[in-house]
Write a structure and sequence with these properties.
Layout lengths: L6 E2 L1 H11 L3 E5 L3 H14 L3 E6 L8 H14 L4 E8 L2 H10 L3 E4 L6 H16 L4 E6 L3 E2 L10 H11 L3 E4 L4 E2 L10 H10 L4 E3 L7 H10 L1 E6 L1 H17 L8 H22 L4
Parallel strand pairs: 1-4, 2-3, 2-11, 3-4, 4-5, 5-6, 6-8, 7-9, 8-10, 10-11
Helix pairs in contact: 2-3, 2-10, 6-7, 9-10
The protein binds zinc ion.
Length: 281
């Protein structure tokens, strides 16, 4: 991979992941700090990367502000970058992302009935494919750490879902959860294996941060090709900025110092996790 066109869609970046049998890191970039950290570290390691913005993060990072910055960073990057909408729940937000120049979107119909999820996902695929944009969908329901219970993806349903909708990647539920884990997650690797065998397409792991390194490696071996990673990196940056602020309370201090602490902290997380996902070490 390489060459002039650095803004790539999910299909192109997943092809690279399948060939190399690695997972591409998909990192949330709800703010300028995370955006800088991810692009800088991907360029340093010379690896393709996915930057993504989640609908639930819009209150802190409006799509019309951070979205154009993401697309611009991707265009100017020295490595291939896919700009992805994470957990889009309506056609309206998918359309906004496509209009901004995003190359990939997730339509999350996991709260809908199976039939309705399939119907709406298919409609979303038809729309985005007209624009050369890829689509990730979700089947089964991811838990939210500490609250919402998830239910595992049914491999038999996955075959029907994938062939009926024409999606490019599938997010599956196999024991991970969004947010900070109250206790270590127990993953069901058989589900990855079964879905991969039944419906041959790139599989996506959500709730990726906070998982043991050995479990990432196992999940990648079973067919996970995109790992969404953010909560622990975001929480780590918050704590470091807080510490720094407490240590330097003088009123002559300026906000951008906290911003730099956040970028450096996130780069530390990325330095480690990218080696694991891309099997660099
Ligand atoms: Zn997610």
């Amino acid at each position: 991979m390489g060459g002039k066109k650095m803004l790539v869609n999910l299909q192109e970046i997943m092809k690279f992941a399948e060939e190399k049998e690695i997972a591409i890191g998909a990192f949330n970039t709800p703010c300028f700090e995370s955006l800088c950290a991810v692009i800088e570290m991907a360029e340093y390691k010379k690896i393709p990367v996915i930057i993504e913005h989640a609908e639930v993060h819009f209150p802190c990072g409006p799509l019309d502000q951070i979205g154009p910055a993401m697309v611009d960073f991707a265009r100017r990057a020295k490595v291939p970058v896919c700009v992805h909408l994470d957990h889009g729940t309506s056609m309206r937000v998918l359309e906004q992302a496509v209009e901004l120049g995003f190359t990939s979107v997730m339509f999350d119909g996991s709260a809908l009935s199976y039939g309705e999820n399939k119907k709406q996902t298919k409609k979303a695929v038809e729309y985005v494919h007209q624009h050369g944009v890829s689509l990730e969908a979700e089947l089964g329901c991811m838990a939210t750490a500490g609250s919402r219970q998830g239910n595992y993806t049914d491999p038999a349903l996955a075959v029907d879902f994938v062939s009926e909708t024409g999606i490019d990647a599938l997010a599956i539920a196999f024991g991970t959860a969004h947010g900070i884990y109250p206790q270590a997650p127990v993953l069901n690797f058989d589900i990855i294996n079964q879905v991969k065998k039944a419906a041959d397409l790139p599989l996506v792991m959500h709730g990726g941060s906070g998982v043991d390194d050995k479990d990432y490696v196992k999940a990648i071996k079973q067919g996970i090709r995109k790992i969404n990673y953010y909560s622990y990196m975001g929480a780590g940056a918050y704590q470091k900025a807080l510490e720094y602020g407490r240590e330097h309370p003088e009123n002559s201090r300026l906000f951008q110092e906290l911003s730099k602490v956040a970028v450096d902290t996130m780069k530390g997380y990325l330095d480690h996790i990218m080696d694991v996902f891309y099997r660099l070490k």
